Amino acid sequence: MKKIILSMLLILFSFSVNAISFKTERIEKEYRKLETKNKTLTNVLGKIDALYTISGRTSLYITEVFRTKKEQKDIYGNNKKVSPHELWDAVDIRTNDLSVEQVKILKKDITDLFNIFGNNIYKITAIYHDVGLGPHIHIQFRRKK
Ligand SMILES: [Zn+2]
User: What's the 59 CA to ligand 1 centre distance in angstroms?
Assistant: First the structure.
């Protein structure tokens, strides 16, 4: 019941608010494109956006959406691992303006919200880490078919 009320409230608010901001114009464009690549991911991020705007908590600063093969190689070297960013399955949110406690809450909120909207093919939805470009929460999601 609580889940239904929360999702209805968020659907209502997600049309009117926009607390998400972007590091670059390229990232903003990619975020718009994400809607056609991974609907659930954009949908849930819109609701997180709404949740954070309503509650007056931190704004969501997106630092990465899509990553090319070359960019992946520049970070990880010749490691053959494919990043969820290369598949339009991930978005990064900057955390260096947040306290340890705020990061913990944000991570939990994100995971809870994604759990409402479907089964994730990735085991972990939100990862807090730094791969050399600054600490951030990496959110990865693709709905199980
Ligand atoms: Zn990431």
Answer: 18
Split at pLDDT 50, 70, 90, the class of 13 is: low
Burial class of residue 7 in the structure, from the number of CB atoms within 10 Å of its CB (0-12 exposed, 13-18 middle, 19+ buried): middle
Q: Which domain holds residue 33?
A: 2-140
Distance (angstroms) between ligand 1 centre and the Cα of 43 equals 18
Tokens of 18: 């926009």
| Ligand 1 center to 1 CA (angstroms) | 32
Q: What is the pTM of this model?
A: 0.82
What CATH number is associated with residue 66? 3.30.1380
